[in-house]
Amino acid sequence: MALSATYSDNADLASAGTDKQEELFLQVLPYFTLTGEGARVRAQGYYAPALYTGTIGDTPANIDNFLSFNGTVEVTPDTFFVDGFATASVVNQNASGRSGGIPTTSYLYNSDDLTQAFGIGVSPYVRHRLGSSADFLARATVSTTNFADSSANNSVNAAFTAGFTSGTSFQRLPWSVTYSLSRIEFNEASATSDDSNTYQEIIGRTSYVISPVWRIDGSLGYVDNDYQTTSGNTSGGTWSLGGTWTPNPRIALSLGYGGQPYGENWYLNSRYAHKRVSWFANYSSQLTTVQQ
Fold first, then answer.
1. CA–CA distance from 5 to each of 51, 54, 59, 143, 248 (Å)?
2. Looking at residue 281, what is its pLDDT?
3. Would you list the DSSP string of the chain?
4. Are 7 and 22 within 8 A, CB to CB?
5. In terms of Cα–Cα distance, which of 178, 149, 179 is closest to 166?
6. pTM for this one?
7. Are 58 and 89 in contact (CB under 8 A)?
8. CA–CA separation, 84 vs 80, rounded Å?
9. Cα torsion for 233, 234, 236, 238, to the nearest 10°?
10. Alpha carbon of 145 to those of 88, 137, 142, 154: distances in Å?
11. What is the pLDDT along the chain (292 residues), one digit of tens a residue?
C-alpha cells in the first residue's frame, strides 16, 4: 500500500494579476508488483487501481489506473542495452499538451478536468567505460503519449541524450557533461495550435568533495526551447551552486540556488533512512512535460 500527496501552486503558468489555483492531491495506491531477472533480462513493474482526490475546493474522488513497468535487455555484455517501459497516470488535460495553448484560466492541477494518460516506449542505449577517466552513455528514446479524453494532445515523442561522466580517477572532483534533445509531435489531425515542441539542453555539473561529510556542487549550462510562456523567456543560460551534507550513511541533505530562463531555482534534496522507515523531501523549480 502506498500513500502520496502532491502540492501545486500553479507553477506561475497564469499571467500576473490573473487568478491562480493551488491544489493538494492525495493518492491511495493498493498496488501489486511483478519482478523477474535472468542472465540478460530484467523486468519490474507495479499496477494499482489508484484512488485520486483533492483537498482544496469541490473535488470528487475517482479511481483510475496507475501503472509503471520497466524492462531491460542486455544485448551485448556491459555495452548495448534496450529498455522498454509502459505507464498509466492521471493528469490535467488542459495543461497536458499544445492543443489551444495554456490559457490563463487553466490550472496545472484543475480537479474538474482530470483525464487518464497512457505512455509506452522503447529506449536503446550504449554504455562504454573509458578506463578510469570517464564513462560514455548515449541513449535514444521513442515513445507515445495518449489521453483518454483529449486526443488533440496525443503525441509521438523522440529524444536523444549523450554525455560523459567522470570515472574513478576523479573521486575528489566528480563531473559530468550531457547534451539532450527531445521533440514532441502532437496529433496533427485535431491540434488547434502549434503541433510540435522541441527542447534542447547542454549542461555540465561538477562537485568538490571536501570530506566524507561535506561537498560543494555546481552546474552551468544552456537551454534552447520553443514552447510558449507568458514571459516569453524560453532560451538562455542555467546555473546552480549549493552543497551536500552527509554526516553518516543514513542522512543526506543537499541545498542550493540557481537561475534559468524562466525564473530562479531553489532546490532541496533530503534523505533519512533507519531500519524499516525512510523519509524523503525534495523541492525544485524546473520545466517538465506530461510526456516526460
1. 12, 9, 15, 28, 28
2. 94
3. -EEEEEEE-GGG-SPTTS----EEEEEEE--EEEEEE-SSEEEEEEEEEEEEEESSSS---EEEEEEEEEEEEEEETTTEEEEEEEEEEEEEGGGSSSTT---TT--TT-TTSEEEEEEEEEEEEEEEEETTTEEEEEEEEEEEEEETT-GGG-EEEEEEEEEEEE-GGGSSS-EEEEEEEEEEEE-TTT-SS--EEEEEEEEEEEEEE-SSSEEEEEEEEEEEE----SS---EEEEEEEEEEEEEETTEEEEEEEEEETTEEEEEEEEEEEETTEEEEEEE------TT-
4. yes
5. 178
6. 0.74
7. no
8. 14
9. 100
10. 10, 25, 10, 6
11. 888 887 766 544 444 545 555 667 788 889 999 999 999 999 999 999 988 777 665 566 788 898 999 999 999 999 999 999 999 987 766 544 444 444 444 444 455 567 788 999 999 999 999 999 999 999 999 999 888 876 767 889 999 999 999 999 999 999 999 999 999 888 766 544 557 888 899 999 999 999 999 999 999 999 998 876 656 667 889 999 999 999 999 999 999 999 988 788 899 999 999 888 899 999 988 776 655 5
What whole-number distance in Å separates Cα of residue 166 and Cα of residue 143? 29
Spatial separation of the C-alpha atoms in residues 10 and 19, rounded to whole Å: 10
